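Q:
My hope is that you can spare some time for a protein that puzzles me. I hope you can help me see how the letters and the tokens relate. Thank you; the sequence and its tokens follow:
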Amino acid sequence: MKTLQTRALSALLLALVPLAMALYGAGCGAGGMDTGAAYESDWGGAGGGQGGYEDTLSPAGDVAASADYGPPPTPEEEMLLNLKAPQASQNYVYIAATDRDSLVRISADDPPQIDIIPVGGHPTVVATVPGSDTALVINSGTQDVSIVRTQDGKDDVTTLDVLPYVNLLAVSPDGKYAIAYYNDLAAEPGDPVGDFQTISVIILEEGKDQARLVSTGFHITEIYFHQSKSIAYLVTNDGISVLELDKVKDGVITPIIPVSEDPLDDPEMREVLITEDGDFAVVRNLAEPVVSVVDLESELIVTTEVKGLPTDVDLIPGVDKVLLTLREQGLAYVGDLEKLQAGDDDALISIDIQGSQAGAAVVTADGTRAVLYTTVGMVKAVAVMDLDDAAYPWKSWPLQKGVVGVAVSDKGSTAVIFHQAEGYTAGSSDVEKTIAATEGFTLFNIESGYRKLIQTEHRYTQHLFVADKQKGDLAAYVLTPDPYGGAFGVTHSVQAAVLSTYISTPIPIASEPVAMVFIPQARKVAVAQDHQNGRITFIDVDTGKTWSVTGYEINGMIH
């Protein structure tokens, strides 16, 4: 996405929503449905089976301050990241060999080059630096971070002491800085508790790498980087800690910008987003019918009431605007952040989305469209809103199965809509029963509305989009591991979908796939698997050819 929310490897999407599902076994994917009350589908309308509900616009209007909205509505489910997945640089895959105190580097060549790089003790979380062959790894056993720079097949390792028990890494998009910190939401049972209010800032400069300790607000849940300045914004329980990375020194205390006028406001009941230009923060309170905009320069907080409890909030990339979705009221709002700050009457445009039943949205990276959907009630439909049109028209599209998650491709041409096996009603046809009983996903062309259901033997656990600067979106890959380990004759697989044709081909995988990464220069997808000696399968994006590497952990014992 083009927003400032460069949620590096460390990002915890909607960590504040307690019922958010861990859809990713490694990346995004396999969570269950919230079993809220079922919604009746209402798809007839003027558009018949294709939807076609044109929106009705109005100013936000008056909201009764005394309205009782009751408890927060069932939250929409979000996708989370596997923080310990292998990571790809421009030319390699880097994997933490935790028990070998090493980092494994594998090239995408056939045959591949495998190198075992000694680092600190018990390496765990890996992150790579954008546009380079540089990896960072947290060594939890020795409480340090190793920086591995690869050039011409050779590795230079620098190890820096960092704050004890850090378990997350965030790397700035310009590759000049990294932040290592602790978050309890990323901790595993039995892990020691780290410092909630101190971070290690790593200055990445070859030959001059440094780590500095900085004090912040309490309990960091998200890190954003400014699109053009060396500034990091740390979302904490206390507000937003502003860190000027190019001025960092040991002992710096970050200034904290409040995001609520109520000092007793529950931080677990809010979601905070920050615009790519660092001008504004947008705050959604899960229990109040309001949206707040914080000017990050003046620190002024302006709160505006809306006609219900927002179930989702999304920034629109490229402009200082926000999209709010209110599932229970059948409403969406597009808000101009500058006008909201100024208190203008026309700051919020209200859009009637009644009939869509949408409670969440995914905005394309270019900010031109939003895919509206709900994960509550197994609703078999999505809608597309045109964000370039000042009238914000939208159109609904029926699906064959209920929605449990939506992801949009890098270039915004295709959405993958994830499903799960579900029940069916009495009187369902044989076809309807068969579709309901299977797992799968739908490839959805956002511009034309074409939908193609891909049925799979097993539930998805992760997806990966591959795009090209000249050709646009190329392919989508979806992991569908066999939870029974092949005991019933069905193997693990990767579904490889070509986005120009929507033809999806299952690629058998010998061991349980747990993560995928894309290696840009080599144009290969690497599929890491759960194997006692280590196994990776490479998929050539252009030809579909596959080959596997097994035993790199054994190699680690030899070196």
